[in-house]
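Quarterly update, task 2.4: magnesium ion-bound model.
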Amino acid sequence: MSNLKNKLVVKNKTKLRLKDYDPSDNAGFNKEDALNLLTENIDKLKKLQYLLYAENKRSILVVLQAMDAGGKDGTIRHVFGPLNPQGVKVTSFKTPTEEELGHDFLWRIHQHTPKAGEIGIFNRSHYEDVLIVKVHNLVPKKIWSKRYEHINSFEKMLSDDGTIILKFFLHISEKEQLERFNKRLEDPNKKWKANPQDFEERKRWKDYTDAYEAAIKQCSTSYAPWYIIPSDRKWFRNLAISTIMVNTLESLDMKFPDSKL
Ligand code: ATP
Ligand code: MG
């Protein structure tokens, strides 16, 4: 299972093409086994979270990025929902406010990075500033093109300060996205989620793909790697992310501190 981490981490950056990654890959797992393994992973994660909190030295930052309907919400619910909410902080980054736009692009992000002992989850992130911003030319190229370097420096600083960074791109196919949009429209409980803007953005699939490839290529580093998670199958997505989380936390070799008595 630890192979999953190795398999999904982005290593060969120069040749990265998302079309070479199959969004419905399941690495040989079936749904039933995957659901059992997810339960096991969650049990392990709960214990590791407790240890992370007790140790109070390091923090975990999870970055979730995806096309619309890619499954960020579902991942948060299924993989991180069962953890102790006292130690998990989810931040959703939406269109920046005027106040936020008046500052550098990392200003609003930095305020939400996790402190020691905490797991921070970014539902969208500073990567939007080289994704939607690039696709829609929200700032000139000479501004956004420097941001990859700024992101790497920022993430290196966080990493040096004790933050373990994991970045997940939930990779779905164009077809799967359309099916999910249509399902939302058909389901009275999900209809409220359907958004005309999502259909508009869908027309720019190719531009978003290019923007993701550039971001993943330029910002997958040893200290803050990107993982490309095949996400057409939700059960595989949850298995993959929970496995990578468990492996990463286990590799920290955390210890309970001595008693203060
Ligand atoms: P949901 O699954 O509920 O639709 P969401 O993350 O798509 O969740 P929305 O409120 O639909 O949330 O959309 C947030 C929007 O904000 C996205 O279109 C995203 O691209 C945009 N956004 C986020 N950060 C920035 C940014 N820095 N600059 C411009 N737009 C941004
Ligand atoms: Mg949305």
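Highlight for this quarter: The chain has one domain: 2-11+18-249.
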